[in-house]
Amino acid sequence: MLGFVARRVGKGVLVLLAIVVLNFFLIRLAPGDPALVMAGEAGAGDEVFIAQLREKFALDQPLPSQLAAYLRSIAGLDLGYSVRQQMPVATLIGERLPATLLLTGTAFAVSLSLGVLLGSLAARRAGTLADTAITGLALLFYATPLFWVSLMAIILFSVRLEWLPSFGFETVGAGYTGLSRALDIARHLVLPAMTLGLFFMAVYVRMTRSSMLEVSRLDFVKTARAKGLTEGVIQRRHILRNALLPVVTLAGLQAGTLVGGAVLTETVFAWPGIGRLMYEALLQRDYNLLLGVFVVSSAMVLVFNLVTDVVYRAVDPRIEVA
């Protein structure tokens, strides 16, 4: 297993290097001159000042030279300096990353656990009213745009019912500490995590239901029933365990999508994560910050995929690592 993990980490590093190079050229090909933007916001648009900005941030160098310098800094774990924020990029991302990990981790755990639970229930009650209700809700959440669900959740739970806060990470100026602060953050987390996880929960419900129904018709399940095993044991040990393999594969792929989906959710709910930071950097032409967020996001996706491979092997020991 250790050799397998080492090989996967090596491949992940090569993939990350390719992503860094690709992102560098894509950012440089985007329209707009960052030197002109910075000069405009500083209120000084003369040619001398613009040339000084280009020289200071190496924007006057050829692209290969800029790329080589950027790769050397990445190898040294230096993500550069944000001109707009006047702070190192690593510091900015480090301040925002915990909020994004909390949001995406909670959304992922809720969507996967509820999706498998409801999908299992629908498969065991196939053809009944409960099955129709669960599959109907899953289809509704799957087809509804994320931003619409977010806005409706704010209107219902924050504006009408006043149960939950509509934006932010915690109550500003409240001065909570310890458990009180944790509970305050949890209240702010409910709406963004639930709305971000609803779409993925619907996918897991449909995948789990169809996979369990398919496995339940196989011969080894009929043999288990013929041996006199209880229905609960058959469902847990024989059907659900085998049906989870495609669900685990899909969950690993969608873990990376959650990071991308967090951009919209963090923007709507004013959640201070790296998704919102990336959106702000894009609007401000902050190249270094934008590239830094891309690198960290890509690394997160690769880590999620590595964890998925390990979990996949643990769920079904028959699968050989290679």
From TrEMBL:
The chain crosses the membrane at residues 12-30, 101-122, 134-159, 185-205, 243-269, 289-312. The lineage of its organism: Bacteria, Pseudomonadati, Pseudomonadota, Alphaproteobacteria, Hyphomicrobiales. GO terms for biological process: transmembrane transport. The keyword Transit peptide does not apply. SUPFAM superfamilies: MetI-like. This is ABC transporter permease. One of its GO terms (cellular component) is plasma membrane. It is found in: Cell membrane.
